[in-house]
Each structure stands twice: as C-alpha cells, then as structure tokens.
From TrEMBL:
Keywords: Methyltransferase, Transferase. CDD domains: AdoMet_MTases. It comes from the Eukaryota. It holds the Pfam family Methyltransf_31. InterPro entries: Methyltranfer_dom, SAM-dependent_MTases_sf. One of its GO terms (molecular function) is methyltransferase activity. Residues 37-181 form the Methyltransferase domain. Gene3D superfamilies: Vaccinia Virus protein VP39. One of its GO terms (biological process) is methylation. This is Methyltransferase UbiE.
C-alpha cells in the first residue's frame, strides 16, 4: 500500500506554507506532552521539516525520526536541520504504510508518533492510524492534527471564495481524500482501536487578518491555484478549467487587498493514548 497522489504537490507555494509551521503554531495540543527531554518521536509526513526540527530541539536528550515520500523535500528538511544546528533528528524517504522498509523504525519504538495535515491527503487514513498505533510504545501517544475545509470561513463575503471552497473540496474527494477529516479524527482513532476514554479531542485555528498575514496566505493560495499540482488535479478531474482557476487566483488577490479581510482555518486535533 502507498500513500497515493498528493493533492498539493511540492510547488514553492506549497512549501512556503509548510515551512512556516512550528510546534507552537501547528502542534499546540502536543506541547503539554513534550516535558520529557528524552522522548523518542516519529514525525509522519514531515515535509520540509520545520515542525520536526522544532520537536527535536525540545527533546535534546531524545531523538526524532521523520519520514516523507518526497526525495526533494527530505533533502530540504536535512538542510534545515543542519542550518539550525539540530543533530538529534534523522530524515528518511518513506511513508507510514511502508515503515518496515526504513532502518531504525520498529514497532512499539516511539513515545510519540506525530502527523500534521497528513490524514486528509490519504486514501486510507484508518490504515495509517492503525500503523501509527503499532509504532507507539505502551504508554505513548499518537498525535494527529488536520484541518476541516468545511469549517473554514472568511470575511468579507465573496462569490469567488465560495467557488474556491467548493472546487477544492470536490477535487480532494475525486481522488478519494477527505478534506473535512479534522472533525472526525477522534472517530478514526476509535476505529483504529483506541477506546474513546483514551482520546483527547480538541480544536484550534489559524487566523489570517493583518496585512502581512493576508499577503502571505492569500498570495500562496493565488499561486497554488495556478502553478502547483493542485491545478493539474483540478484539470484532470474535469471539475474545473484553467479559467476557473485564474478567476480563483484573482479572488485571492482581491481578498489580500481587503483591509477588513479575515480568513480562519479550523483544525481538529487528537491525542490518542496507547494503553495496550
């Protein structure tokens, strides 16, 4: 089994978003569980490694192993760790479904198995959660965070934003992914064998409202709509045209210029405790 096609791809506009992420802004649910400096952590779908390196800096006597299917992205992650002077981290090409092929990854070998914005891009998120559970030691945790596109919102109203919203969700579903998975992470954990009493569910948000925040968020989505692999997926699906995507890109640029503009990304989170 493989992780399947990645809707966004690894265009520069995508990596700008990923590279902004830190433990503080992307793993608030995990921070209370990082008090032991000797933890062993697995970061699944690590991307360019900014969260990974931040995690490693918080467990200086521990270690972090991170995996991602993209060779190019793993190279970027290794360079980021080197630039930050973080040595207790190892990046490997691979995915959660083929972890047995990766040296140094053993069942029950990690205190924390972490995945950020990963399950929404998988055709079989339940199997991924089951594999993460296998990799967590007794007494350890699986920590997962994914957004819920159905709950995203913006101001002021704009027909083009609704068009983006509908097209993105339809395209994700066309490749059998769930863009709204953030609302049901606890349910997936239950299906993977975690009792409901062992699952802590929470929600947090990214908000983009200042001129700088709008410029960054709207700018990367304008570019992503016309230049990333997402564009290819839209066209292949037949759900949208190049003209649709150009219109959507222009909408994002208009939203960037709105002094009262506001965009919220809602994220579901779970901490699943492995008691068995």
């Amino acid at each position: 089994m493989s992780s399947g096609p990645y809707l966004h791809g690894h265009h520069a506009s995508v990596l700008r978003s990923h590279s902004w992420r830190t433990v503080e802004n992307s793993c608030p649910h995990l921070i209370p569980h990082l008090t032991n400096p000797s933890l062993k952590i697995l970061d699944v779908g690590c991307g360019p490694g900014t969260i990974t390196v931040d995690l490693a800096s918080r467990v200086p006597q521990g270690s972090v192993v991170a995996i991602d299917p993209s060779v190019d992205v793993i190279e970027k992650a290794r360079k980021h760790a080197e630039e930050k002077g973080i040595a207790n981290v190892r990046f490997e090409v691979g995915d959660i479904f083929n972890w047995k092929d990766i040296d140094g990854i053993d069942g029950g070998g990690f205190d924390i198995v972490h995945a950020h914005q990963v399950l929404q891009h998988l055709q079989d998120p339940l199997s991924a959660m089951k594999e993460m559970k296998k990799l967590t030691r007794k007494g350890g945790i699986v920590a997962v965070r994914d957004c819920d596109y159905s709950a995203m919102n913006h101001y002021p109203p704009h027909e083009g934003m609704q068009k983006w919203h509908d097209l993105y969700r339809a395209t994700a579903k066309s490749i059998k992914c769930d863009p709204d998975i953030g609302k049901r992470l606890h349910a997936i954990a239950m299906q993977a064998g975690f009792p409901r009493s062992d699952i802590d569910a929470s929600v947090s948000a990214w908000t983009f409202s200042t001129p700088e925040e709008r410029a960054w968020w709207c700018g990367l989505w304008a570019e992503r709509s016309t230049k990333s692999d997402y564009k290819t997926r839209v066209l292949e699906s037949g759900l949208g045209t190049e003209e649709d995507l150009e219109e959507i890109a222009q909408t994002w640029k208009e939203m960037e210029g709105k002094e009262d503009g506001w965009f919220a990304v809602i994220n579901g989170e779970v901490i699943a405790h492995n008691r068995s």
